[in-house]
From TrEMBL:
Protein name in UniProt: Putative aldouronate transport system permease protein
Chain ranges of the ABC transmembrane type-1 domain: 74-276
Assigned GO CC terms: plasma membrane
Matching PANTHER family: ABC TRANSPORTER PERMEASE PROTEIN MG189-RELATED-RELATED, POLYGALACTURONAN_RHAMNOGALACTURONAN TRANSPORT SYSTEM PERMEASE PROTEIN YTCP
Originating organism: Cohnella lupini
Length: 291
């Protein structure tokens, strides 16, 4: 089919716009990565350049040096993301499955109660006192348990589960399957797109989270890497981020450490997201049709 002049102009305009948007998104990433490998002299001489004239990996060596708290923080973040996402997904899916059952008498009441928490909260001080009372203060579990279930994600999965063919579930009940078997062997396998979407939400949230650790944890051994990134940016003395009994080289320029830490904290999510993007789009559209 031959395109008209207006359609060709529209396609050209869309292409130019998308190229500009891609450059606007790729430039900050390239800027941070390139400048993490620059010397201070190169950064001063070329403030907008993304290509290092002289390679300097001292920032990365410092970040991953022996005795660096950042290495431990990186492991804390990885464990938190994996364990937290798994727990979030399990409890969110189980709760959503209950709310999707139209025969459950408390379905509407529970939906209203959890929806209420989306607009009204107890405030930081009451939550802090509750955390201390429960014995979660300065404990790894405080990074996972308080945010175990997201109401928004529960509602997304609830809507998705309600669209599954009821005939399959009813047939399983007739064959003697209980709710647990239906949930594990029928509902979850049919909901891979929605589950991948929710997993991405939770994983990114855990990986980027820093405020809860800053408030509820004062032990550096339990700090996630995002808290250390904040400390590096705010702290001019980098030696405070190295364990006292460790022997390290002379501290590199603070800007190199900041840029290197940004790269190592951002790279894992950038690598994972492309593999989940197709599930993300499908899960969001399908899970938002029915209320």
């Amino acid at each position: 089919m031959k395109l008209t002049l207006g359609e060709k102009a529209f396609d050209v305009g869309n292409t130019i716009l998308l190229i500009v948007l891609c450059m606007a998104m790729l430039y900050p990433i390239s800027f941070v990565f390139g400048r993490s490998l620059m010397t201070d002299l190169d950064r001063a001489a070329h403030p907008f350049s993304i290509f290092p004239m002289h390679l300097d990996t001292s920032g990365y060596r410092y970040v991953f040096s022996s005795g660096s708290y950042i290495v431990n923080a990186y492991m804390i973040t990885i464990v938190r993301t994996l364990v937290g996402t798994l727990c979030n997904l399990l409890f969110t899916a189980a709760f959503a499955f209950v709310l999707s059952n139209k025969e459950y008498p408390l379905r509407n009441a529970l939906t209203m109660i959890i929806s209420f928490t989306m607009w009204f909260g107890g405030g930081l001080i009451p939550v802090f006192l509750l955390i201390k009372t429960l014995g979660l203060y300065n404990h790894f579990a405080v990074l996972i348990l308080p945010g175990l279930i997201s109401v928004w994600n529960v509602l997304i999965l609830r809507n998705f589960f309600m669209q599954l063919p009821r005939g399959i579930i009813e047939s399983a009940r007739i064959d003697g399957a209980n709710d647990l078997v239906i949930f594990l062997r029928i509902v979850l396998p049919l909901s891979s797109a929605a589950l991948a979407t929710i997993s991405l939400f939770y994983a990114v949230g855990h990986w980027n989270s820093w405020f809860d650790a800053m408030i509820y944890i004062n032990d550096k051994d339990l700090w996630p890497v995002q808290v250390f990134l904040r400390e590096i940016i705010n702290n001019t003395n980098l030696n405070n981020l190295i364990q006292s009994d460790a022997v390290v080289e002379v501290s590199p320029p603070a800007q190199s450490v900041v840029m290197a830490t940004i790269v190592v904290t951002t790279l894992p999510i950038l690598c994972v997201y492309p593999f989940l993007q197709r599930f993300f789009v499908k899960g969001m559209t399908v899970g938002s049709i029915k209320g």
